[in-house]
Amino acid sequence: MDSKAAFLLLLCGLASLSVEAKGPFSSVNSGELGDYIVEYGADYRTVALASQTGNFQLVFFNTTPNAFAVAVRMGNFNRAETMRFVWTANRNDLVGDNATLSFASDGNLVLADADGRLVWSTNTSNKGAVGIELRNDGNLVLYDASNRSVWQSFDHPTDTLLVGQSLGIGGVSKLVSRLSDRDGSEGPYTLVMEAGGLALYFNGVPYWTLSFYASELKDLFSITHTCKRAVATITFLSDPDAENGYRQMLEMRLGNSTAPPERRAAALCNLTSDGISTALYSFTTPRFSTTLSFVRLDSDGNLRMYTYSPQIEYNTWDITYERFKCGGTGIYGCGLPRKCGSFGLCEKSQCVACPQPGGLLGWSDQCSPPVLPNCGTTPASHVDFYEVVGAEHFSSKYAAAIGNVKMEECRRRCLGDCKCAAFFYWEESSKCFLTQSLDTLQQLGNTKHLAFIKTQTKM
């Protein structure tokens, strides 16, 4: 293709992109769907709003017929099949064909279904917003006559942070995963900004932490407590580094507000200076530009960083960081709560066994935990435990432990709680852990770490 033809093709692409909608506009979810099946196997229709670079675009998209979300997608406009969804307006309340997204003269951005039902809005009526813009960093912004932000999507993250986007701004302190790749409603995994750091939870149970004070601090107490000031923002950064290419980082910054007394722990004050207010955690250093990057809490509970790499022909998104990476030794993929479904023993990222009263059986996706005895109706004489040597719960390193107790006391506590599904005991430290759900157990080879699974005996 000669340079003139390439230039004309570029102009044609930009014309169809409809870069900006500065003032009031209305877009109806109707007409032909996009030419490509895109991320999550979705169909899409474009809205007349995109960034000037063409790397971000507003669309209606669906993974099931007639159930659409409004979203910002990211990537290369000329390769629509590779674009990724990085923000969603109405993930828990989808709309159908002929729904309307409109920015009215009163300054409110509104999504209404075909029957007129109000589904979602920015709640910015009569607050001075005069224009709307999708900026080159992926931020959807309503702005006033002085070009100041009245509302922005960066203040309302869903499962993703873009470069420069923060938790804590606008009061949103967590990311929530999709329920599945096909279902974009809120799932069971959350990435939460706590008083002293960052934590991953599965249905409220922790399975990974990152402390502001010290990398070796893992227990949830150290993350949910702080010295004096609490963590106020956590920002995803991707900056050039003269020696290592680019650095992808999370920046934790303490706020000026005083943490409440119940969230203070004097022991943490010994781990940092009063003058320290920022902590940087570098995760990876790709050798190519990471300007188009995002960090996402995926539907499997894994925290991943993605970077657009135009040099790659087939899959232009490179996973530059993966918290629970399969392969190798140690925990790796076994750290994911549902790696083995509702129950299973995981070793070196593989589900290797289904623990049963008679021993370890071969694992399959049919492996399930024992049915718990009925609360209040099953006598204690018909409740028992079977042992799995060297097994740990995915949350054992992070959840609060009952310290300095004997194994029999640990057993008694689980026996006395009808919702307790198992107890875990560390012989070398006399620590006891109780859990109400089993999910994935980790086989780490420490024979002093014991799991006891509750089961009902025949009556």
UniProtKB/TrEMBL annotation:
Where does the Apple domain lie? 375-456
Protein name per its UniProtKB record: Bulb-type lectin domain-containing protein
**What is the annotated signal peptide range for this record?**
1-21
Ordered alphabetically, the record's keywords are: Signal
Q: Where is the Bulb-type lectin domain?
A: 34-155
Q: Which PROSITE patterns match?
A: BULB_LECTIN, PAN
**Pfam families cross-referenced by the UniProt entry:** B_lectin, PAN_2
Q: Which InterPro entries match?
A: Bulb-type_lectin_dom, Bulb-type_lectin_dom_sf, Pan_app, SLSG/EP1
